[in-house]
């Protein structure tokens, strides 16, 4: 089969589509079957395929096999290259490439020099002629890797994959996107669309059959191998708008590996005082790194994990174990960094943690239970935290993005390339988002006016929302007062009465030593605990309408329709009745 | 999205509230922020559809509903029924192996292309028509023969394995290779194309490259033949097995039959492979494109060769020309040298002659001066004078002789001649060429 089939503009009916997550550390491929996304396992049985290519004796290896060659053949192994796509040599961060092929500057283009062809050998295997190492641009490396990835998908599906949706970080610029599309095209794939990684993760959750469309604020924390990206996404009627993002290169999976590497290296030196530090030797370091990663993964699943490397340094084998508690203690500073990162993004979006309805943990590092636990401490209990350790129905965080991409691919595969282009054009995607909520005023049991939100802030217009609101118990004429609304955070200080109580009890318990600790503890807690709630504040009035003669126990339907020009049409009527009141402003 | 129900009640209408049509617009929305939607998800697609076609929510709802409704209708219409052959209705269900399952279900138009959905629908339709209960209602009790045929056909076609076995031997779906007569009328690509399209159904690998047409590139054609000469077929011939007796009475017999069947399958598979190969050989033999590509390749090769030969010829010619030019130049140089030699020889002779002549002038001059004596000169005087002249001549070179001859020429008076000689002798003596006293007669 020819590889050179023109890909751009494959006819919609001939397409075989997949979703690809092309990560800096790992990549995934997924397809959809009966509207459900499935992640594809490659020939080695991996669903997370390391983004690594390795060349040994002219053979190309990729994924887990290539990763193993980081120990024995680091010079001809290319890893962590995704982020270099479409960038100048000046602006790349080559930190992670220290243990593999180093990036080089070839006329400003990031390139790697690897020996990807075998030496010419005679029948006895004697080298006749050495073949010089070739210099591959990062573009070529990405093309080769994507070709392997898509090849695995084609093998799995039994059909040649023609098109794909690929996820990209939110901070990928146009040049990087172009470079990625060019690399994919060169690998023989039509790129239907590039979608943002956080949105792919949200889509993966929202596309579950049990999910309902609702207005919510979602924080997507993608904790990857070499970088962490956090985004605040407003999901309004199933449409997604990114409100804020943050990118961090310090708190990521490799930082956790590093902690474990240091821990075990020290333990090794303690046991073998005469041996050389395994961190000083490149090969030992590579072994250490591979095993540390495996141990980290094991600690995400079990409470204990073993660590064993043969011939770690000076030919000495090393085996040890670690429990999760110890790991969480030594990795504490890194683990807490994730919390600060998430908090900072929520703040950047101009929101409070109370505004967040859902937190999605995505990416391989999200398997770490402590990260989810830490996050659950900063968010209120009403926030759904979708991580495997806190929520049994959570989707595997490593697979979220690929699933989202596959779902999007299946949604748009029937459209022509021109159609997709037009629909993703800025003229369609750039729309007004209302700043304040629109709602009506109700009266609660205490007789206070309360705001009932109908259209939430940051909703893209045009938008239409309908609510059914109870009428007064007695029925009769009701007033529908449409107002703007806003939230603020109400902080309730613990009442001084409580303090008195505590001090009283403290004095009582002065004599009683047994209970002292306990009372101190409760004292602290009471003092720290402020009660914070989200409260709707009624803003300016937009319109008033009257519904007359509502039946006893009846309900009133209010539909608010905001147009693209910000004009609003309010339609109200009694549920089940004809007619109703309609007005425009 | 689902409508939310809120239990907190609305306030009652205050006394005296009144407005036109019960609606009182008061404020406007505050300014909105421009943000970029993420073009992802089904709801965005709906948004894009509305935005691009400038539809409102209710218009879009209506159009979508219409489209959905239309689709259902299409589904109903797409069920194509074909007339039932009365011979087919008479079939015995026991003879199911020779029955055309697609035809029984009314899908002979689709055959291997029929989807599972189509088969299910066709089955249901046939069942509704041919159910024995319906026959019984029409007065024909126990007429379930064709119904059994339908059930058998569905059983085979809905089981992927059995369906493949049946499709493998479904001759109705085969397209016969074109005869020479047909090919003579043209349509080569269309006729062979349909043959390979039908053969492609056995391919394990999809998509199968198409036969293409006259305009296909060399790569496409090569790709096509490569694919087909390495064709990976799932075609198998279990369907044609002879029945294996499944009673336990005769195990040997059973084994024998099984072996026989396996061999027959193998043989048929080999035959099928050979058939396909022959098909390809026939096709490629008549394929104008291959000939054309070969010619083009040859032409390209020939062109290269001709170019090389032309280059060689030119080089040879150039070399010959250069050699010739060199020879010519050498010859010319030689001739010139010869001429030069001749000229110098001539000049030398001329000079010699001139010297001779001048010497004669010198001698003549002394003779004209009568050897510087009055009256007849004695032989000794003449000898002495001529000896001196000889001496002078020997001491001076040709130019000086010529100069001296020029001075002497035309002089007739003896004193003047003598003066010239005297001056010459003095000059020579001054130059140290002649010792004083050596010349006597001229200097006297």
Automatic annotation (TrEMBL), chain A:
Residues 509-530 have a biased composition (Acidic residues). Residues 493-503 have a biased composition (Basic and acidic residues). The keyword Flavoprotein does not apply. Pfam families: HSP70. Residues 493-535 are annotated as: Disordered. One of its GO terms (cellular component) is cytosol. Keywords: ATP-binding, Nucleotide-binding. GO terms for molecular function: ATP binding; ATP-dependent protein folding chaperone. This is Ribosome-associated complex subunit SSZ1.
TrEMBL record, chain B:
Residues 74-85 have a biased composition (Acidic residues). SMART domains: DnaJ (SM00271). The keyword Chaperone applies. It is found in: Cytoplasm. Residues 56-73, 306-351 have a biased composition (Basic and acidic residues). InterPro entries: DnaJ_domain, DnaJ_domain_CS, J_dom_sf, RAC_head, RAC_head_sf, ZUO1-like_ZHD, Zuotin/DnaJC2, Zuotin_N. Residues 100-170 form the J domain. SUPFAM superfamilies: Chaperone J-domain. GO terms for biological process: 'de novo' cotranslational protein folding; regulation of translational fidelity. GO terms for cellular component: cytosol. Keywords: Chaperone, Cytoplasm. It holds the Pfam family RAC_head. Residues 48-93, 246-273, 298-357 are annotated as: Disordered. GO terms for molecular function: Hsp70 protein binding; ribosome binding. Residues 253-268 have a biased composition (Basic residues). This is DnaJ domain-containing protein.
